[in-house]
Amino acid sequence: MSQIRVLLTFIVIIIADTTILAQELNSLYPCGTIMGRSAWLKKFQTDPTAFAQRGNEILYVPLTVHIVGADNGSNYYREQNLVLALCTLNKDFEEAGIQFYMAGPVRYINNTGYANHNSILKGAEMMFANNVPNTMNTYIVGNAGGFCGYNLPYAGIVISQNCARPNDHTWAHEAGHHFGIPHPFLGWEGGVSWDNSVTHNYANPAPDFILYDYTLFKDDFFTDTLIIDTAYVERMDGTNCHFAADGFCDTAPDYLYIRWQCSADRRSLITQTDPDGVTFTSDASLIMSYAFDNCSAYFTEQQMSAMRAYLIDRRSNYLQSYAVPDVPSHDTVIYNKPQAGESVFFRNVVLEGDPVANAEAYLIQIATSPNFGIILEDTIVYQNSAIFASLRNNSTLYWRVKALNSLYYCNGFSGSSSFITNGISAISDKSSHPQLTLYPNPVSRNQSLYIHHLFHESAIVTIKDLWGREVQRLNITTSNQMIPMNFAERGVYILETEQNGRRSVFKIVVTD
Q1: CB-based contact 485:448 (threshold 8 Å)
Q2: Confidence tier at 65 by pLDDT (50, 70, 90)
Q3: 3-state helix, strand, coil in the chain (%, to 5)
Q4: How far is Cα 159 from Cα 166, in angstroms, rounded to an integer?
Q5: Rounded to whole angstroms, how far apart are CA atoms 134 and 508?
Q6: Burial class for 275, CB neighbours closer than 10 Å (0-12, 13-18, 19+)
Q7: Of 238, 264, 262, which is closest to residue 249 (Cα–Cα)?
């Protein structure tokens, strides 16, 4: 067996055992990342000044985002939500001086087994098969093994769609794990008894120690041994904060290891009791806690210092040369095609606007009303135009654009425009004007299109596809012209005639 095969096997064994514990704890466990204070973190917390942190320099982290859907390409995470989630992620890390940028376009995976996987082991298989090196790979799936999300230190981050809403902090929580910091309630993941078999009454003083599965937390993994060890319970007076729980003294005691709601002042609704009998409520503002997303807000100073040092020391492969772009212009987009109020065929609709300064991509949305309450389409494109294969027919639709680039996702939309869709029912089997008649229309690829005209001189006939590419040109010299249509693919085409400066345009539909 090769060295690579041995390494992957070792990693998978770790993941598999981690999954067993996490799933036994709670089928709705919010985070599948089970990690303790690593040897690196203990060393850092002993002397943070011994680690480089690069002062006020912004550290830029490259992202690869994988959106995972079903085998047939359905059930994708919406790109509108992705843009807003990326904005939230960067806001969460702004104070830490860490910012994320897209290292390349969104990557799509059509795999039902990956999109709704039941174990972290399956997620590991997905990541090993699709990861992009030297980037922080994040996979957004339908169901992340029964968790809101999880981080695999050797692979990347996986997040369930229902925990990747625009204002959720699951992505930031898992990125915190990715940069080496644990939960503030470290040791309580299995309750007081490591396997959640003993119920704890928070009205009673917590024990001085709690049990946890040391096998999972230890840097060197034992595949055939279960080691149950003890962890110090953090006290309110701070006397053991530097070695109890997560080892950060600016994260107050927290014993809550299930998802919890907070009060208006962002404190837990559950009152806990430390080993000295001191009662307290937990700080719901901590992103690394299990408080609901509407409560979460920030990382502490010590957490931020640790993440920066870990990124520089342990994930330096992320810190590549990156040309930081300017913010895309906030000027109103000039919507060129279709013109406002223009009527267009509902298939293969081309939308185009003027390029926006500093933009590398555009989020395009199409809706049924000017307030964009019901969005029919939202997609990210990497040029200032897009083609939509089929839109709602016989409707007035509205579209707008948000300019993006690899780093900036928080821009607003630039105005909007509207157009009207119509169908082939508006095209009769015989298209005509006083001098020219086309039939049949629609026309099959194995038929011929007949052109009957009353031109007294020859005319030039051009057939173009909806991208404006010329696919056929001929010179009409007789009153009846036959054009075999076997050159055309199924779709909509534009036929133009020109004679002595006079131009006429027809829409023709080619079927199979």
Answers
A1: yes
A2: very high
A3: 20, 30, 50
A4: 13
A5: 50
A6: middle
A7: 238
